[in-house]
Amino acid sequence: MKKAAIILPTYNEGGNIEEIINDIFSQQKLIENWQLEIVVVDSCSPDKTGETIKQLQKKYHHLHLLETPKEGLGKAYKKGFEYAFNKINPYLIIQMDADGQHDPKKIPEFLKEIEKGADFVVGTRYSKGGSIPKNWGIHRKILSLGANFIIRFGFMKPQVTEWTNGYRAIKTWIIKNAANHIKNYSGYVFQVAMLDFAIINNAVIKEIPIHFEERKSGISKINALQYSAQTFFYVFSHSPFIKFVIVGIIGFVIDFGISYLGIERLQKPVWIITLLSTETAILSNFLLNNFWSFAHKKIEGGPMKYFLNFLKFNLVSSGSVAIQTLGLQLLVIIFGRKLWYLYKILIIIFIIIPYSYILYNKFIWKSK
Ligand SMILES: Nc1nc2c(ncn2[C@@H]2O[C@H](COP(=O)(O)OP(=O)(O)OP(=O)(O)O)[C@@H](O)[C@H]2O)c(=O)[nH]1
Ligand SMILES: [Mg+2]
């Protein structure tokens, strides 16, 4: 029988913990192929959550307690993973809040998806059939919806609707391989980092809708400001799409800078300078994209492979020039020349950026 280790991080969940543990173990009879093991990671809660666990251990032999200092949710989870790997050797880990917001009745559904082939199952509040508490204040809704929106579109993964919720089932190999990637994230943002790592490493992701309940008792431990800042910083520094846009801006500055220097200052022939400036920008874009934006799938296989991909890159770039030239000319014919710069910006945002990003991902920096 495979083991599923459920990690329950707790800080002052004394009012909730007994009920949640009873509810989780009551699911065991519905699951034939899995042995449930619970690891409570308690950060020395002053409300004596740990004492309740010690009492419950007399009743439940598959209940473990790990006591840690209070160092944030991510740190607590990492210690819980380590404990589970060393003492339980599970096939997968289930992450779950200990405050009643995640319904234990969903556990069999998570396990079923794993049996069907998923590597990483996310309980989502934001797809059909999922929900958030009706009485959530506007600030809470904005925080949760806003964070998910920024992450989804920052990573260009609109199909993944939930990034921040902590109800998940994850195969052990993902967590073991992610150790290095998540090691610096001690707060709530580690949830985002873990899912991002899994997607980059081609894990099969599956979402199941969940109703996110109001916490049963006690107070929230989330620090909204710190969490928003860390999430924003994570997306900004890890999104291939955002990096790709920055590389495009750098390319534009290089192109414009060389043109200005050659044409204005040095008074060289326009066609020579234009050729030089555009090709330099294309080369810089190619290298920066390869070693930065798409570093996780950078070109391998020697100089010939680089050269061939650089030619492809030039071809895609020529396509951008053609689209811009024709598109702008068309709009100017239809609407007149007055707002040409606005048309140019719109074409870049709505056509050139998606066009290049999609073609780069399809033909040059393909998923490994
Ligand atoms: N061990 C440990 N657990 C923590 C820590 N911070 C939060 N937790 C637990 O992590 C889970 C999620 O934290 P919550 O405060 O419920 O966060 P949330 O669900 O986003 O916020 P609410 O919706 O207001 O409950 C709960 O079980 C907490 O007790 C920590 O520093 N250490
Ligand atoms: Mg909670």
TrEMBL record:
<feature type="transmembrane region" description="Helical">
    <location>
        <begin position="269"/>
        <end position="292"/>
    </location>
</feature>
<dbReference type="GO" id="GO:0000271">
    <property type="term" value="P:polysaccharide biosynthetic process"/>
</dbReference>
<feature type="transmembrane region" description="Helical">
    <location>
        <begin position="341"/>
        <end position="360"/>
    </location>
</feature>
<dbReference type="GO" id="GO:0016020">
    <property type="term" value="C:membrane"/>
</dbReference>
<dbReference type="Pfam" id="PF04138">
    <property type="entry name" value="GtrA_DPMS_TM"/>
</dbReference>
<keyword id="KW-0812">Transmembrane</keyword>
<dbReference type="InterPro" id="IPR007267">
    <property type="entry name" value="GtrA_DPMS_TM"/>
</dbReference>
<dbReference type="Pfam" id="PF00535">
    <property type="entry name" value="Glycos_transf_2"/>
</dbReference>
<dbReference type="InterPro" id="IPR001173">
    <property type="entry name" value="Glyco_trans_2-like"/>
</dbReference>
<feature type="domain" description="GtrA/DPMS transmembrane">
    <location>
        <begin position="243"/>
        <end position="365"/>
    </location>
</feature>
<feature type="transmembrane region" description="Helical">
    <location>
        <begin position="313"/>
        <end position="335"/>
    </location>
</feature>
<protein>
    <recommendedName>
        <fullName>Dolichyl-phosphate beta-D-mannosyltransferase</fullName>
    </recommendedName>
</protein>
<dbReference type="InterPro" id="IPR029044">
    <property type="entry name" value="Nucleotide-diphossugar_trans"/>
</dbReference>
<dbReference type="GO" id="GO:0004582">
    <property type="term" value="F:dolichyl-phosphate beta-D-mannosyltransferase activity"/>
</dbReference>
<dbReference type="InterPro" id="IPR039528">
    <property type="entry name" value="DPM1-like"/>
</dbReference>
<keyword id="KW-0328">Glycosyltransferase</keyword>
<feature type="transmembrane region" description="Helical">
    <location>
        <begin position="241"/>
        <end position="263"/>
    </location>
</feature>
<keyword id="KW-0472">Membrane</keyword>
<keyword id="KW-0808">Transferase</keyword>
<keyword id="KW-1133">Transmembrane helix</keyword>
<feature type="domain" description="Glycosyltransferase 2-like">
    <location>
        <begin position="6"/>
        <end position="157"/>
    </location>
</feature>
<comment type="similarity">
    <text>Belongs to the glycosyltransferase 2 family.</text>
</comment>
